[in-house]
Amino acid sequence: MVFMVVAALKRYRFAWTVAVAVVAVLAALFALSLSAQNSEQFSRLQPWILLASAIGVVVLSILLARKVLQLIAAYRANVAGSRLTVRTVTVFGTLVALPLLTVYLFSLEFLNRGIDSWFRVEIKQGLNDAVVLSRSALDLRMREFSSRTEAFARRLGDNPPASVAFELENELRASGASEIVLYGPYARILAATSRSVSDVLPSSPPEDLRRQVSNGRVYVSLDPVGESQYVIRTAAPLTARGLPDARFVLVVYELPRQFAELTDAVQRSYSQYGDLAALREPLKYSFRLTLTLVLLVTLLTAIYGAIYSAEVLFKPVQDLMAGTRAVAKGDFATRVPLTSRDEMGFLVQSFNDMTKRLRRAREETERSRLAVERERERLAIIMARLSTGVLTVDRDLVLRLANASAGAILGVDLVREVGRSLAEIGVSSDRLRQFVDELRARFTAGQDEWREQIEIGGEAGRSTATVLVCACVPLPAEDATPRSYVIVFDDVTNLLQAQRDAAWGEVARRLAHEIKNPLTPIQLSAERMRRKLLPGLNVADAEMVERSTHTIVQQVESMKQMVNDFSEYARAPSMHVANFDLNQLATEVADLYRSQGTLVTIDTVLDAGVTSIEADRGRIRQVLNNLLTNAFEALEQVQGARIELRTELAANEPLPAVWMTVLDNGPGFQRDLLARIFDPYVTSKPRGTGLGLAIVKKIVEDHGGRIEADNQPDGGARVRVMLPLKERQRTGAIRERRTELRRERA
Amino acid sequence: MMGRDAMAACMRWVWLAWLGLVPLAEADALDGALEVQSAFVSTTAGVYQLNAHIRYPNNDETAAALRDGVTLFYDLDLEVTRERRYWTNAMIVALSLRRELAYHSVSERYVVRDPLAPEQRTFATLVEALDYMGNVENWPILVAAQVPGSANYKVGVRASIHRGKLTDALRTLMFWSDDWQRTSEWYSWSLPR
Lengths: 746, 193
Prior knowledge:
The complex is a heterodimer of chains A (746) and B (193). Chain A is α+β, with helices and mostly antiparallel strands and 746 residues long. Chain A has five domains: 2-118 and 290-307; 134-278, PAS domain (Beta-Lactamase); 386-491, PAS domain (Beta-Lactamase); 498-567; 575-745, Histidine kinase-like ATPase, C-terminal domain (Heat Shock Protein 90). Helix content of chain A is 60%, strand content 16%. Chain A has a five-stranded antiparallel sheet with strand order 2-1-5-4-3, with helices on both faces. In chain A, strand 6 (389-394) and strand 7 form a beta hairpin. In chain A, helix 5 packs antiparallel against helix 6 (164-175) and helix 5 crosses helix 8 (257-278). The longest helix of chain A has 49 residues, at 280-328. Chain B has one domain (29-190). Chain B has four helices and ten strands; from the N terminus they run αββαββββαββαββ. In chain B, a hairpin with a 7-residue loop joins strand 3 (72-82) and strand 4. The two termini of chain B are 26 Å apart. The model of chain B is unreliable at 22-27 (pLDDT under 50). The chains are: A alpha+beta (746), B alpha+beta (193). Chains A and B meet through helix 2, helix 3, helix 5, strand 3 and helix 8 of A and helix 1, strand 6 and helix 4 of B.
């Protein structure tokens, strides 16, 4: 509850402050009116009234100035709703100011005229005339009294001092004066008489009286001595025998009661009018100030109220504008506070409903987008995991989509090249260029949907030709969209090779089985025939039998050798893996061939880093024997024949491995045979069985290795064998290859 | 410390400044020096009496206003305080001597009267009337019993003039523009013991 009150106070802080200021001013004015009833109270309250009024008005002015500055700043900053507020405040202010100013001006005019009418010239003139008339009426009597006093002074001056008192008494009775005093030098009282028994001492003569009589002149004055009491003082210097005397006589006459009251009335009226007339300009000034104060306080309050009302009125509009801007920027969570239940509240409610619906729609869209995104990611993952290459291209062979396998098969990272033409990308890769040529040929022929096996060779002069099973399907095209194609292809090279190997293995096994069995009886039969027949034959026949049986035995031996080779090729691997020094083995084999007294130079370039390898020593020796034998056979007719045997650690292989290379400077491999050089019965030699390299390849693959054959740029053949250094890697590589084969078959 | 009159005057100036009407309020009908020129206290038979000479302003505007019927009050305020070291001075006596000056148009004399006493004196000229009021002689202000001990006492005198005979309603209306109001500075000295 307390927090709510505090919050309400904070929210309406300015309104409260203004209310306090206005109340302070009104209270001050009220106190002002109250204090008018009591002068003492007014005197006590006056500074506090002024202080309260000043504080109230100053606070009101500061608040209004602040409000106006805020409004101007908001207007310049194009704050939402500020222009509407300024316009409304201007209209409200004008509507309030015009009647206020009209009333103010009319009031001023009315007051001026009213106050002026109080002090009309005729009244002033009438009072002046009354004063003059009174003065004239009294002057007559004063002159009469002064003449009588002057005559009495002359008479008194000639009398002896002893009769002065008697003369004064006589004159008092005769003239009707109230008091007669004879003064000597320095205004010393010489004699006095009075009608009043209470006046023991006569009053001292005024200064002007003494001044005048000392100059020898008669003095007369009307003196107000109390409420409706006036005396006429006459004084005259005495002359003794025509000469000036230092004495003077003062005769005081009381003005009759009726005259005194009339004079008092005239004087009172004159004085009161004078007091009021003196107030005329200050009074008008005070009225102007008071009216101006009331006008300004009212105007300030009205303008402040107009600003405050406009702000309150347009607050929902400002909120709506801010909300609209937020919605325009995509913030659909915006909610405009509902401050009223009127039409504006209905508008706010409608806006909030609209943003709520928009938010739901966007959330729905977002969910759909996320679902699509998830599907796309799933598809991307599937495509990335696929060993099958997938490409999407348009009719101009511009790449739209590619997976990693496509790049791996074609030898170019196609994922990074999306958006470029395959023709441009293929400049850097022979394999891709050949692939693009195949695609272009089919598109040019108008084939939209096809499935074929494509063979693309590796780089020139290498044995690694790749066979792809490729399928192309057009994508459903939307209106005005260039048609696209999905091309799916698989590298079936290894699969084909494996199939060939399996077929040849089966052939070899059958040959070994079907041919080897009759060979021994044939050989034994031929030897028995020679042994039985030779003793009974003549020389010529014996010679013929000897030669024939010898030929039969030789050919049977030869066929046995061939069958053994086949058996070797078809034999399931039976590995005797051990740790041995490959360089040492290479040196032994090279020395063995050198010791045969051949003309061929055998060089060994052995990497000292190649220390030991886990493999079947005997089969690796057979690999070296076969390779060197092949090289020797290729160099039979070559002058300066030279063979180089190298070992080196493999630098770019994922696992530790060694490269074993045999090079010669012979004629090299025939180019047309290069792609199938490791197949059985593929040979360029007239006496070869075509099984040497096939067996080598089989042994290498049984060790998890890889073999490549190509021709050197400056002539001569080169066969490279990669062997894993560790048994575990070998089995891993073999397992991977089998998996790959299974995948290809699938 | 700012007196009540000074505070009221200050507030009025704030108001007028806020209203932007300061130039309109600059007129001063009591233009001229208003000061207590000299003052002292004498002791006679245990009674302290004030003697002072005050200079009251005398100008044509004042004379004309008097002749037109305006009545002026001439006040002489006196305060006797006991000095305190850590607090404001204690008030012992606060007196005011008021004289009323008016011009009697029928008799053409200036009348000086004490509103509290029936006597009044008339003067032929304004100068004589002002001289009379400006010379205060033997005004009893306190007796010795009111200032006991060895404390220090301070006497302050100031003179003031204001328009008299205004009704309360008119006084309220003259809230903003009563320039017939002047007060001198305090003339202060220590009370001789």
